[in-house]
Design a protein that fits this description.
By secondary structure, the protein is an alpha/beta fold. 41% of the residues lie in helices and 14% in strands. The chain is built from 9 helices and 8 strands. The strands form 2 sheets. It has a 4-stranded parallel beta sheet with strand order 2-1-3-4, with helices on both faces. It has a 4-stranded parallel beta sheet with strand order 6-5-7-8, sandwiched between helices. Helix 1 links the parallel strand 1 and strand 2. The protein is globular, with a radius of gyration of 17 Å. [(4R)-2,5-dioxoimidazolidin-4-yl]acetic acid (5HY) binds next to loops.
């Protein structure tokens, strides 16, 4: 089985980190390819970033589908372009926010999310509602560390650990979901330090896609997620008019 993990931002070092987490989780016989677009934002920290990350993400999904990927992971906590990617790909597409939140609901009654910037917390609440887990989600906290600073700021790890510990102490959450793909390498250590399961959405999404593919299941194509109808696009998006893998390369 081949799973494509798409980091929708253009940070190569973050794609490497995401790929390591995905490969560490993937089962025997599952190959993982981790990619990022050639075009788009270096990190996704606003609605603007998220909107402009989507064309590159979709081109990546199409190319991966063309190259034989059985399923896809969108490795950004806003689950950007999820519905469009499900229209484009035949294999299952899972976002790390949805997978992380759903995994947390198997591990207790309540969970909290710890993410990067305060301004992105609204999106997390919106997704919790969309995925039907708003009630289980007790809090969404931000550590006010920029996405790319997660790799460079020596205080980031202890700052995130302190916020996770505070979520447990003050909200009594049974589990925590890490609200950024750039935190993927922290889950195991934080689970020990904080004493509750800390979920890495990248790992949760990889195992979810693996399970769906093993069950022989793909996105339903009869209605809403049927391939997008070809039509003329103009300007820099001209090639997106023919939403086929070859055209979107
Ligand atoms: C992410 N941004 O997972 C989100 C996290 C966030 O570039 N990768 C990003 O802060 O919304």
């Amino acid at each position: 089985m081949l799973i494509q993990v798409v980091n929708p931002n253009t940070s190569a070092s973050m794609t490497d980190l995401i790929g390591r987490s995905a490969r560490a989780t993937a089962g025997p016989g599952t190959a993982v390819v981790a990619v990022h677009p050639e075009m788009g934002p270096a990190s996704i920290e606003s609605h603007y970033d998220e909107a402009l990350a989507v064309p590159g993400l979709l081109a990546g999904i199409a190319a991966g589908a063309h190259d034989g990927a059985d399923g896809h992971v969108i490795a950004c906590f806003g689950d950007p372009g999820l519905d469009a990617a499900r229209e484009l790909a035949t294999g299952p597409v899972v976002g790390i926010a949805e997978a992380g939140m759903r995994a947390a609901t198997y591990l207790g009654r309540t969970f909290g999310v710890v993410t990067t910037l305060q301004r992105t917390t609204g999106r997390a609440w919106e997704l919790a509602a969309r995925y039907g887990v708003r009630e289980q989600c007790r809090t969404v906290r931000a550590v006010e560390i920029a996405v790319l600073a997660l790799e460079t700021d020596p205080a980031a790890r202890s700052r995130i650990a302190a916020e996770c510990a505070d979520v447990v102490a003050t909200e009594g959450c049974d589990a925590i979901v890490l609200g950024c793909a750039g935190m993927a390498d922290l889950a195991a250590e934080l689970t020990v330090r904080v004493g509750v399961p800390v979920v890495d959405g990248v790992a949760a999404a990889v195992t979810t896609v693996e399970g769906l593919v093993r069950m022989g299941l793909r996105t339903g194509k009869r209605g809403e997620f049927a391939p997008p109808p070809p039509k003329s696009y103009t300007g820099v998006l001209e090639r997106f008019g023919m939403p086929t893998a070859a055209a979107l390369r």
